[in-house]
Amino acid sequence: MTTPTPSQLNKAGLSKNDYRGQPSTLCQGCGHNSIANQIVTTCYELDIVPEKVIKLSGIGCSSKSPAYFLNRSFGFNSLHGRMSSLATGALFADTSIRAIGISGDGDTASIGMGGFKHMVRRNVPIVYIVENNGVYGLTKGQFSATAEVGLNLKHQGINQYMPVDICMEALASNATFVARSFAGDAKQVKELLKAAFSHHGVAVLDIISPCVTFNNEGEAAHSYTWGKDHEAPLHEISFIPAMDEIEIQGEFAEGSVREVCMHDGSTIRLKKLEKDYDPTSRANAFQILESAQLNDWLVTGLLYIDESKPTLTETFNLVDTPLNRLVDADLRPERETIDKINAMMF
Amino acid sequence: MIEKVINDFSVTIATVNGSGSQTANVTLLRALFKMGIPISGKNLFPSNIQGLPTWYTIRVSKDGFIARRDEQELVVTLNPSSFAQDLASVQPGGAFYYADDIKLPIARNDISIYPMPVKQMARAANVSPALRDYIANMVYVGILAQMLGIELETIQQALSFHFKGKAQAIDSNFGTIKAAADWAAQNLQKTDPYSVARMDATSDLIMADGNTAAALGAIYGGVQFAAWYPITPASTVAESLNSFLPQLRKTKDGKQTYAVLQAEDELAAIGMAIGAGWGGLRSMTSTSGPGISLMAEYAGLAYLSEVPVVIWDVQRIGPSTGLPTRTAQGDLTEAYYLSQGDKQNVVLLPGSVKECFEFGWKALDLAEQLQTPIFVLSDLDLGMNQWMTKPFEYPTAPLERGKVLWEQDLEKLNGIWSRYKDSDGDGIPFRTVPGNKHPASAWFARGTGHDENARYSEDATTWESNMARLKKKYDTARTLVPEPIIEVEEGATIGIIAYGSTEPAVEEARALLKQAGNLKTAFLRLRAFPCTNEVQDFIKKYNPIYIVEANRDGQMRQILSAVMPELASKFRSACHSDGLPLTANWVKESILKQEKNQ
Ligand SMILES: Cc1ncc(C[n+]2csc(CCOP(=O)(O)OP(=O)(O)O)c2C)c(N)n1
Ligand code: SF4
Ligand SMILES: [Mg+2]
């Protein structure tokens, strides 16, 4: 490896290579690969220190991908559908750590649905990405719970059941950040990822991520073709980090831009497209998802955001030192207390 | 004049579940304890909030035998629906106390019969109608106090403890007790021989339940994270964490050094605990059999990825929902083998309330030392009943945090280390935890095959050598877990092995066997898997070996037979499970019968 020139180093003093992972073993063209690449770029551009990130996943092709980014971050490829609880416990270890969770539609919307909704309801501070391909990739092409009615898959027949809408489920569980995107729209994925990393609480990103091997026929609702033809972005999203404030003034005609100020001082700028969309209203989010379902749109963008809710760990009034750095004296009550405790018994 | 029997009988009180009789029963138990008499109390309660019959049985034993007995010298009933059964259960020569509003036939003349004006006295009590049912229970406390000779002063101490010093509650309850005692003095003629008298056998003891002890032990063990899901009989472990942690583990400015979280189910409870354990926290979860079943997959992940976590199983009787409020030792094989693939788990087996405390902190040490799930198997009898116990002892050793590398350690190593390498020859590798800022600190945990550097691998030899190391680690565990307690007896050839809450029944059975046929026995109380060398030595020394346990299938025998097949022909099972704590008599009979059959 050649030493990068300083200009290639970000503010954390790291080159983009420092954010890469192992070579991917997923299929060529799999949507999951492009999302992994965007995670690398996002973390590099946000100057994130990789040691301050934990990357977690369940089981599936999607859940394999934490191995393919951020080699210098702690990772845990856990159990099918069970990453939500793992994240919930792990985040108590050191609350300065950021978590990124990678899941699949099977992992989240079938086996892991209960845990997912409870993680969301507790506002666990995590960037939670569902790489949604409407199919079980790793077990070779069975229907997932997000498959559309009428989808015809080899060896499986025709799906009869209504799909689960992950964004709806997240909203119903009082998620504080809900976005949908499309792996084929790399720029939007990246900007949403940046916004999600700045979010204070749980950020659910439902990213349509085509499985080129098992579910990419032209008319299938999780295919590249369908996505390209039906994507209906709510806005043009860009993320402005806290440092860059000065640059963002008066470039746009009044009413054409919405700005969402984030907890950490950064800004999400949403440029109006056809219609204005206010992502701070839950009702709007439900409504647009309902219309999207009726009209066969792939609505993408920031559906909902609420920066005001405390995160799970904030509700605990923890000591300032990370819990995992506390020592004996912090953890074991003093010797005198044992007599008091015994006296409290009968 | 019949001969008096002092401090040696069992009394069972039959009431309706949810009627508030627990306060009365525990008051009696505590009062007797404060009189210096060895006692035990067992709540035999239904899975129901209100309405079904429930019993509380107290054993008073001058000799210090505190196992439950089937024979009841004294029976008190306030419950019409169990009346006939209660009456029939009184030992000949015993006494039957009943609420006199129950108008049912009493066709026994071999026992003393004492009616109690329960309703009448409750009405006379100066309390609101809502409290009358509760106060009614105090009537039998007062009458028993008078008839048995329980000191009213110790009753007052027990009430004061229960009501946390609240004068009004203490006074109104005590008023009824006193009135009932006076009534009994004037109206009942004692014709049975059973009574109590002050002793000095409990002054250095306290009373507590195993679940409180477990939680306190964990707190002194520096527990930092606990996730749980409600289930009888385990809930009070986590509830005790919630009540004691704020007193013991907040900083001066009121901040927490811990977090307790009620999860959405046991799948999540263990996932959270393992997440925290991986993050470097002293972490635990507590549940019962059904929860253990749900935790199976995650336990295997923790085993293979080598994450520390403590799992308390307060056992109730299964399979399935079983009898949720009845005790058993039925989860032994489940815990020992839990999860798919090759493995044995480290299992601790506390046999007393004091050991629940001790294993509460030791389990957290072992989890971090061994980087593996540590199961602690208590049971309903131990966990939920009040027991006499030696006071809790401050841990004798500093916290064991195991092999964790922090930034400065990695600097010294120039960042060169391998997560799953057996660098010390004990099978235990080094680990780092998230938050470590050294650029070489991170590693990737997974339940899939991995090499020494935690990289994904399907290589056959890599898999096998990792599994061999894990086995070696289990051998290291053998040197770290609590050793058994052994009691030898001059001239004994028979050995007994037992574990957990059956100890009192076994101890008494040994005394009975000696009395009955001069049958001498040696006793090993197993306190952990893997077995330490002492276990093998004991088994080699004696023949036959009776393995006593509260389950149908002889689960301990199954495991020991698998561990030491060459010695298995020595084993004989004395196992039995009906939801009730084993009695000494049953243990004795079971052994005698098998001795005769040989
Ligand atoms: C408890 C359990 N059940 C079943 C499986 C088998 N399994 C592995 S991946 C998978 C589905 C993955 O689908 P999804 O989450 O959509 O991920 P994708 O592969 O499509 O990215 C299943 C059922 C498992 N690993 N664990
Ligand atoms: S099977 Fe599908 S989901 Fe899995 S790697 Fe291949 S394309 Fe991606
Ligand atoms: Mg999928």
Question: Can you describe this structure?
Answer:
The complex is a heterodimer of chains A (346) and B (598). Chain A has one domain: Rossmann fold (3-Layer(aba) Sandwich). In chain A, strand 5 (135-136) and strand 6 (142-143) form a beta hairpin. Chain A is of the alpha/beta class and 346 residues long. Chain A is built from eleven helices and 15 strands. Chain B starts with a strand and ends with a helix. Chain B has 19 helices and 23 strands. The mean pLDDT of chain B is 96. Chain B has 598 residues and is an alpha/beta fold. At the A-B interface, strand 2, helix 3, helix 5, helix 10 and helix 11 of A face strand 9, helix 7, helix 9, helix 10 and strand 17 of B. Bound molecules: thiamine diphosphate, iron/sulfur cluster and magnesium ion. Magnesium ion binds at residues 60, 104-106, 133, 135-137, 144 of chain A.
Give the radius of gyration of chain B.
26 Å
* Anisotropy-based shape of chain B: globular
At the first level of CATH, the class of chain A is Alpha Beta
Task: Please state roughly what percent of the residues of chain B sit in beta strands, choosing from under 5%, 5-15%, 15-25%, 25-35%, 35-45% or over 45%.
Answer: 15-25%
Number of strands of chain B: 23
Pair of chains with the largest interface and how many residues each contributes = A-B, 57 and 77 residues
> How can the largest sheet of chain A be summarized?
8 strands, mixed
CATH superfamily of the largest domain in chain B: Pyruvate-ferredoxin oxidoreductase, PFOR, domain III
Helix proportion of chain A: 25-40%
Structural class of chain A: alpha/beta
**For the record, what is the CATH homologous superfamily label of chain A?**
Thiamin diphosphate (ThDP)-binding fold, Pyr/PP domains
Mean pLDDT of chain B: 96
Low-confidence stretches of chain B: none
CATH topology of the largest domain in chain B: Pyruvate-ferredoxin Oxidoreductase, domain 3
Low-confidence stretches of chain A: none
In helices, the fraction of residues of chain B equals 25-40%
Q: Give the count of structural domains of chain A.
A: 1
Q: Please count the beta strands of chain A (DSSP E, at least 2 residues each).
A: 15
User: What is the CATH class of the largest domain in chain B?
Assistant: Alpha Beta
